[in-house]
Specification:
four-stranded parallel beta sheet, twelve-stranded antiparallel beta sheet, 25 strands, alpha+beta
């Protein structure tokens, strides 16, 4: 009874602490929003006062030049300017804007997530706030961006002194588009225009399928009742109040992320299989390339003892590689990347892998691309795929978790099987604390999308794209016809318990390396890990994955194609 009371008290304290953190996060979030709004208003005012800002720069439906050297594109009927980075016109992940084509669903959807840009006359705005007293004797001066000029030619810095008042008034003004199109051209050189950015997302459904209002009826229906959403994850909770009273989820436009250095990289870890002659010569070449770029090459102690190149650390020391290494170069096969995941149980630097093994499903680059690929990474011109990982720990029969040092992190899969025994395993599986199923089989495996093309594929599981946020639950030779593999959300927490009546004590293995016997009454808790492995892409996440599926696994490959239809 005392133990239960203590457990409840600890749970209550944890809830209180989490609520306190959530409140602090919310207050910090609101304060940051206010600060950003203030900075935006001040920035808008400064842009308006710059010389040479003409009214034609923000015209609706106008297109500015856009070529391979980079430029600005203003899409028709949107009023939004998009900046294309230099040299990325044809590169995957950085698509350039195309015009004069039929709008697709994705094109229409993207337009609803953009910022609208309006323009306003500074003279009208100055008249509203009353800058400088007598407005009839003052006009905006392009030669004096921080002030106004009177009839005598003197300049007063009234814009800087009234920035707050001007910005607040400007933020509340509503300028119609029709009034902007009727501006007399003779005033163009006297009008200073500015962009007004609304950080407010429009309803995607309204922009795609109409605004939903009945224009034939003057009496519009009443709006829905407002509501709040409490969004929680492992980092805390956030209260969100949708202004348009619509529940939506974040949609990702590109399936991978772009990387850019804010400072040049200084330390690089080179990982290779020890005593492997095929990768030793490539290692020497990589070290030479990095030293020419004033980058320190690091290698593991065993590799340093074998080759004598690079910088290493002592075996007994904790090198804290995640705090020192900028990116990683893998020379080998898929097992080399699994070893990198083992070296970095927490944060992993970007990983570029060169195919020098047998299968090479996870290695996107070839050996002859060493020089050019490393140059691109050093410049920061690359995209990466965040390959998700799993973490697992054991809880004893009393519900006590093992020490934190026994937590296992896996890139491929976690397998619980019968080991050396010939009998079936008996397991009870819970998901998020709720009973899920009982397993009578040779075992089960919990796999990431990266591991879906490994043991999971051999056990009958589906191949899953690495961009999918999911976890695979695959039985191994189940003693039932209806036990099919599942794909679960990566937020699920799976608890695999060995009942006291089990005939066999199963063995848990992690990425096929470390093993641990599960005793009767013990449970293995598996959930998603917050630190992925950022694998650098060669041609894009999707293109790299399908190339590996076809070339390495011969997915949907036929010996011959179908004959073409013959004419009558």
């Amino acid at each position: 009874m005392d133990a239960d009371v203590e457990t409840l008290e600890r749970a209550l304290e944890a809830v209180k602490a989490r609520s306190t953190r959530a409140l602090a996060n919310e207050e910090s979030y609101l304060a940051r929003i206010k600060e950003l709004e203030r900075m935006n208003r001040a920035l808008v005012t400064q842009v308006a006062s710059l010389p040479g800002v003409g009214s034609r720069e923000f015209g609706e439906g106008r297109l500015a030049p856009n070529n391979d050297r980079g430029g600005v594109t203003v899409e028709a009927n949107t009023g939004f300017a998009t900046h294309d980075p230099p040299g990325n016109g044809s590169r995957e992940g950085s698509p350039s804007r195309r015009h004069h084509r039929t709008p697709s669903y994705k094109t229409l959807r993207d337009k609803t997530n953009r910022l609208s840009v309006e323009r306003v006359e500074l003279r009208e705005l100055a008249g509203v706030v009353g800058l400088g007293g007598n407005q009839s004797n003052q006009t905006p001066s392009l030669d004096s961006p921080n002030g106004t000029s009177d009839n005598n030619g003197s300049t007063t810095n009234t814009v800087d002194t009234d920035v707050s008042q001007l910005a607040n008034t400007f933020a509340t003004q509503s300028v119609s588009t029709s009034s902007l199109e009727t501006v007399d051209p003779k005033f163009d050189d006297e009008v200073v225009t500015r962009p007004r950015m609304h950080f407010k997302r429009e309803d995607s459904d309204a922009s795609l399928f109409g605004n939903g209002e009945n224009t034939s009826n003057s009496k519009l229906p009443e709006k829905k009742a407002p509501f709040q959403l409490l969004l929680c994850n492992d980092d805390g909770c956030e209260v969100h109040t949708p202004e348009d009273r619509a529940i939506r989820r974040t949609q990702i436009g590109t399936p991978h992320s772009q990387f850019a250095w804010l400072a040049p990289p200084k330390n690089v870890l080179i990982v290779k299989k020890p005593n492997d002659k095929n990768t030793t010569s490539a290692l020497v070449e990589v070290v030479r390339i990095l030293q020419k770029k004033n980058i320190t090459p690091w290698v593991e102690p065993a590799v340093h003892w074998e080759t004598g190149v690079g910088v290493t650390w002592q075996l007994d020391d904790d090198p804290r590689l995640d705090k020192k290494i900028d990116f990683i170069i893998c020379l080998g096969g898929d097992g080399t990347i699994l070893w990198v995941s083992n070296l970095f149980p927490k944060a992993v630097p970007p990983v570029i892998s060169f195919a020098m093994g047998s299968l090479g499903f996870l290695t996107a680059f070839d050996e002859f691309e060493l020089g050019t690929a490393i140059d691109d990474v050093v410049r920061g011109e690359f995209f990466f795929t965040p390959r998700s990982r799993l973490c697992a720990y054991v809880v004893d029969a009393n519900g006590v978790e093992e020490s934190a040092g026994d937590t296992q992190v896996c890139l491929n899969e976690i397998v619980v099987d019968r080991g050396a025994s010939a009998a079936l395993v008996d397991l009870d599986v819970n998901i998020d604390g709720n009973p899920m199923t009982k397993v009578l089989a040779d075992g089960i495996l919990i796999s990431t999308p990266t591991g879906s093309t490994a043991y999971s594929l051999a056990a009958g599981g589906s191949m899953v794209h690495p961009g999918v946020s999911g976890v695979l639950f695959v039985p191994i030779c189940p003693h039932t016809l209806s036990f099919r593999p599942l794909v679960l959300p990566d937020t699920s927490v799976l608890t695999i318990t060995v009942p006291e009546s089990a005939r066999v004590e199963p063995v848990a293995s992690f990425d096929g390396k470390k093993q641990r016997t599960l005793r009767r009454g013990e449970s293995l808790v598996v959930k998603g890990w917050r630190y992925p492995v950022p694998a650098i892409c060669k041609a894009g996440e999707t293109k790299d994955w399908f190339k590996a599926v076809k070339n390495s696994l011969l997915w949907n490959v036929r010996g011959a194609t179908q004959k073409a239809q013959q004419g009558n």
